[in-house]
Amino acid sequence: MNQNSHLADRKFIISGFFIFVAIIYILRLFYIQIIDDRYKLDARNNAFRNRTEYPLRGYIYDRNGKLLVQNVLSYDLLVTPKLAKGCDTMALCQILEISKDEFLRKMKKACQAPNSPRKESIFEKQLSNKVYAALQEKLYRFKGFDVQSRTVRRYPRPIAAHLLGYVGEVSKEKAAKDSYYLEGDYIGISGIERSYEEQLRGVKGKQIVMVDVHNKTKGRYMNGLYDTAAIAGKPLFCSIDIDLQEYGEKLMKGKKGAIVGIEPSTGEILCLISSPSYDPNLLVGGKERTKNYTKLYYDSLNLPLFNRALTAMYPPGSTFKLIDALIAQQDGLITRSTVYPCHGGYPPMGGRPKCHPHPSTDLPGSIATSCNSYYSYVFREIVDQKKFPNFEDGYNHWRDAVRSFGPNTKLGTDLPFDKPGNVPSIKYYNKIFGKNHWRSNTVVSLGIGQAELTLVPLQMANVVASIANRGYFYTPHCIKGVGVEKKLDEKYKKKNYTYVQNQEAYNNVLDGMQKCFDAGTATASKIPGIIACGKTGTAENPHGKDHAVFSAFAPRDKPKIAMVCFVENAGFGGTWSAPIVSLMIEKYLTGKVTRPEIEKRMMEANLIGANHVSEKKTKTKKRH
Amino acid sequence: MRKEEDSIFYGIDKLTVFIYVILVFMGWLNIYAAVYNEEHKNIFDTTQKYGMQLVWIGSAFFIATVILIIDAGFYTVFSYFFYGFLLLACIAVPYLGREVKGSRSWFRFGSFGIQPAEFMKFATNLALAKYLSNVNIEVELSRKNRFIDLIKNYKNTIYAVIILSLPLLIIKILQDETGLALVFIAFIITLYREGLSVNFLIVGLLSTLLFVLSLVIASNTLITLLAVIACLAFLFIKRSLKHFIIVSLIFASASGVVLATNYVYDHLEPHQKTRIDVLLGRGTVNLKKEGYNVNQAKIAIGSGGFFGKGYLQGTQTKYDFVPEQDTDFIFCTVGEEWGFVGTSSVIMLELFLIIRVIMMAERQRSPFSRIYGYGVASVLFFHLAINVGMTIGLVPVIGIPLPFFSYGGSSLWSFTILLFIFIKLDANRLVILR
Predict the structure, then answer these.
(1) What H or E segment, with its residue span, contains residue B18?
(2) What is the DSSP letter of A537?
(3) Any chain A CB within 8 A of the CB of B299?
(4) DSSP 8-state code for residue A44
């Protein structure tokens, strides 16, 4: 024992040092295990993956419960690049019908952020049936590749493309804004699919799965305690009649234009046709879809993606005279027996606007014969009436009365992208002519639905429905209800009243419209056994041949259908639009067509190509 | 009473053995969790590491028993023999052993592997104890600080340092096992207890501090800072030539350390550089590459919370996010599945064992036993501090096992031999005075 006592004391220093280090470590552990939450989150990110279970999108039925849109399985090819090394690239390229360069490009994309070589990502979307069948047999040979099924839309009858719209991948901006969507998710892009996206999409299911360091699934977290099941989207009952829609599309084949049918007693849209159209089945499917979309998008002659029923702004032409007749009667300016002179034109303006030869008529006769001079008088009576010493007040009165029927307003329909049309404001004309440099005679052709006056087919159909209802309309909408309980928004159950509430005025106008079929401009289209009311229109168009317009509803009492048809560059309304409307009304009301020769003539007529005028130009910009 | 004295277990410290058994058992539980695989649930499945570890534990118990049976004198007598024999083995292994996973430190016998470097620890400890107790002097600076004493004592210190340096250099240079080599630095603690000047430790600590600082701060700034400190020193000390020279020398050598550090750092191997960078947070650490190990270790431990996720419930552990989790990173399993309760318990248990060994060392009448005991405590402490420190990001990643916990036959055997020789020496403390 030869140690000094001061050396023995060093045991305290050594032990103290050991204990000191241990305490530091325990404090550090206390910090990272209890205080700092960062590592718990990192651990979750490491080992947990949120898997989404996609709900079935709601089916869409027509008003009679016939299937319009369904879902079918489609297959995406997935790849985990790390595992796919050394697979037979050439064989796979052959099956997928892609080049080796494209293969490498896709592989590179699967390796780069946000994807990763260890992570499974989509290699090729929505394989065609042929490719899938070929791949299925040999999939075992391609290590690292897997197939995942998803559902896509299928349209049993290739109709109503514009109304139904289509579903596609959500945009990056939308995905960033709306937490429901992740990149690559599907969303309704147009039509009903867009308007009723929330009801149709359902609720995504969520699964928390655990993965190991190689991203291999190891089972569900807590045996699925926190998982939720996907809830399928609600079925949608569309208000259109699938047979009527299909028939209308057949009639419009070879023609540009639109047909809109509305049930006046509810505001439900019975058919919404925009021609030329396309098969909605073209816009599902991965590679095909892009190809098809591009093809449709660049078809500048036909503009098949352009929804004319909602966005083509046509001058209504003579069909607009109905509104003038109603307003003038409401204001007490004319009666049933009022007669205005017509000598092949409007006399005060030196025979402009022109008119076709016919005897001078009373009010119903003026509608049946569609007298331009008569309505030039009526328009100026309304605008220049004594009640309004100031011209601008008179003009605004007329404009507001017109707008109460729907033109130049957003109707509030449930279809996206509708245009308001134009009933020119005072400001608008002041810009063209200068303040106080225009009067009712300057813009007199507004009275016959020409000049700068434009509206979209849906609005014109709404005007007809208001007349059929004798003074009110329901906001047009294209669904009967959502889900099995068929829930419908209250705003579609509310009556909107027009300026004209004088029932005698309606009676007089309807007499004229009925006479239109009996002894007027649409006699050739008279429907046997049905008392229908109609009005032809021939909308002048500065860029080409006139548009043929026809508005009608039937039956006169308790109307079941109000309809308008525009056929571009077709000429006289009675020749093209009236027969089409009459056939459709007959088909809808009786279920059959008694005039096969007219039907045949309409179906076979090809009016495209006769006059190469692109649709956009139909928006009348210049006064003529 | 006589009967009891005849028993080979007479006088052994039961508490130490008890803690040892607990640690080994806990270690096995965590190895089972780390390699846990639903397809292989049988704990005796020797194709799995937990099955193998049972074999290692069984044989370790056997070795422990043999050590207790052998007469304590054997260890003192054959100290230098063990040292020499194992030193030769360490030299031979890079030439005779087979390369396993790029490591040249293994002798292979069929499917078994033995790392002689692991056993170098107890042999070096024996040799150091033998040398220091034989010269029968303390490695101490005389308080009088006479010149002749300095030489005499430094000579002893230098021999002691040579005993420690040989295995260190051989293992580092020939086998390139940094972790196994650095352990021998731990014996400085023994030297300190036996009288090594505090100045050595202070100089050592300051050098280490300067080393770290010069990695963090630009060397020009640091040298300027040192110059300022030196100038300040002149203001407060007695102004004489002698003091001036001393302060100047200190300043010069400190600056030398700073400059040397950058030289050494530049000549480190890339993976060692990145380990230091990761620890000091220098530059951008890529958590997918060089920072992956430490980051995953911290995630596993940090996600454990207070009570842990429960045995076999650790997602990071089960799904292999932490590399080397059954060996060097076994502490992560403890952290994730047993939480703060588990980690602090393991640290306290290991610390308790170490303190217990120090207490036992202090009760020895023979310097040999005392010195050997301190060696045991130092080695265990070094392993604990480095191993746990690296998993929680306090020291750079150096691959050394957690005593009695980590998977591996060589390390378990080595720690068992190290500890049980001391238990045997302790049991004999009343019998003879050496």
Answers:
(1) helix B14-35
(2) E
(3) yes
(4) H
The answer to whether the beta carbons of residues A308 and A256 sit under 8 Å apart is: yes
Beta-bridge partners for A236: A60, A482
User: Could A33 and B193 be called an inter-chain contact, meaning their C-beta atoms sit closer than 8 Å?
Assistant: no
What is the phi/psi pair of residue A454, to 5°?
A: -140, 150
Closest CA to B177 of B90, B111, B256: B90
CB B46 within 8 A of CB B55: yes
- Chain centre distance of CA B401: 9
DSSP string, A57-95: PPPEE-TTS-EEEEEEEEEEEEE-TTTTTT--HHHHHHH
Phi–psi pair at A442, nearest 5 degrees: -60, -40
Mutant choice from A4, A25, A36, A220 vs B, greatest count of B C-beta within 10 A: A25
**Structure confidence by residue, pLDDT tens digits, A554-591:** 899 999 999 999 998 888 888 889 999 999 999 999 98
Q: What is the ipTM of this complex?
A: 0.91
Measured CA to CA, the distance from residue A463 to residue A405 in angstroms comes to: 5
The encoded tokens of residue A470 equal 């004798």
Contact by Cβ (8 Å): A296, A526 = no
What CA dihedral angle connects B143, B149, B154 and B160, to 10 degrees? Answer: -90
Distance between start and end Cα atoms, chain A: 126
Chain A interface, mutation test: which of B189, B194, B315, most A Cβ atoms within 10 Å? B315
DSSP of B336-366, one letter per residue? Answer: HHHHHHHHHHHHHHHHHHHHHHHHHHHT-SS
On the CB side of B220, CA atoms within 13 Å amount to 0
Q: What pLDDT score does B64 carry?
A: 95
Secondary-structure percent of chain B, ordered helix, strand, coil, rounded to 5: 70, 0, 30
Token pair 């005075």: residue: B433
CATH number of A74-149: 3.90.1310.10
Burial of A508 (0-12, 13-18, 19+ CB in 10 A): buried
Q: Where are the domains of chain B?
A: 2-196+290-427, 197-267
pLDDT value at residue B142: 45
Q: Which residue has the tokens 């059959």?
A: A592
Tell me if chain B has a CB within 8 Å of the CB of A213.
yes
The Cα A103–Cα A372 span in angstroms is 67
Can you give the residue ranges of every domain in chain A? 74-149, 242-279+308-486+498-617
Write the single-letter amino acid at A385. Q
Question: What does residue A182 show for φ and ψ, rounded to 5 degrees?
Answer: -110, 155
Q: What angle do CA A470, A474, A479 make, to 5 degrees?
A: 140
The answer as to CATH 1.20.120.530 being correct for domain A242-279+308-486+498-617 is: no
Find the mean pLDDT for residues A539-553. 86
> What tens digit of pLDDT does each residue of A51-103 get?
778 888 999 999 999 999 999 888 888 887 877 777 778 888 888 888 888 88
Instruction: Return d(Cα A320, Cα A467) in angstroms, integer.
Output: 12
Instruction: List CB contacts of B363: < 8 A, sequence separation 6 or more.
Output: B426, B429
Q: Where are the alpha helices (DSSP H) in B70-187?
A: 73-77, 79-96, 116-134, 147-169, 175, 178-182
Distance in angstroms (rounded) separating the CA atoms of residues A240 and A160: 9
CB A117 within 8 A of CB A111: yes
Q: How far, in Å, CA of B325 to CA of B329, rounded?
A: 4
Backbone angles phi, psi at A51, to 5 degrees: -100, 140
Helix (H, G, I), strand (E, B) or coil at A293: helix
Between chains, do A21 and B318 touch, taking CB under 8 Å as contact?
no
Sort out which chain A residues have CB atoms less than 8 A from B381's CB and list them: 18, 21
**Closest to A264 in 3D by CA, of A448, A569, A468:** A468
Judged by a CB distance cut-off of 8 A, whether residue A43 touches chain B is yes
Looking at the complex, does the CB of residue A48 fall below 8 Å from at least one CB of chain B? yes
